[in-house]
Fold TIGR03089 family protein.
Amino acid sequence: MGSPEQLFADLLAADPGRPFITYYDEASGERTELSARSLANWVSKTHHLLTTELGLGAGDSALLALPAHWISLPPLLGVLTAGLAFTDNPAQAAVAFVSPDTVASAGAVPDRYAVAPDAAAVGFRDDPPGGALDFVAAVRPQADAWASVHFGAGPGDPCLDGHNRGEVTEWARRRAEALGLSAGARVLCTRDWVTQVDWLDTVLAPLSVGGSLVYVRNCSDEDVLSRRAGQERASVRIR
């Protein structure tokens, strides 16, 4: 049956040095690439922020209101490894991960962490928006060893939209099939994260086939997108 977090663990174990996320911002010229191992360090830090510092786990829920961006993957996968479920209702959330554009959607969630998409690796440096805490500053002191991560929930525990973790894993596999993702697919994404189905398609479905991701932001030029697909050997595009 499995769980979404196990999909990432399996990919990490199979080829930790392989690039998992390659991110382009065509407006700023940024290109950032993280291997599965490098991403696992970020995920571990987020996991320990949630479990060790905040004391959260199975039975708690998180609100995720983030863009399709490499810095959004540690919160997504960190929430999964910690055993939390996802909710769109701030009244049900114990923690929220937001951007400057979505911080207002977190309402009165007790713990709110904001990412800085335009300076993702360093955070806000000054005051983050809307009274939230800076995600990068919050995770920086946390343990980054993947071996210290212990999954906080099992396949039968809640995960997403009324579905348990095993059901979400199967949902991801069905979406991978519908999207035409073969084993090891390299997926170029231009779709933003607006609903939970967006990150199901652009993260969990590729994970379910042992694939990897190329996110391209701020680009509507088909010639540029075709060039990026060729450079990155992307076989599938998700719009």
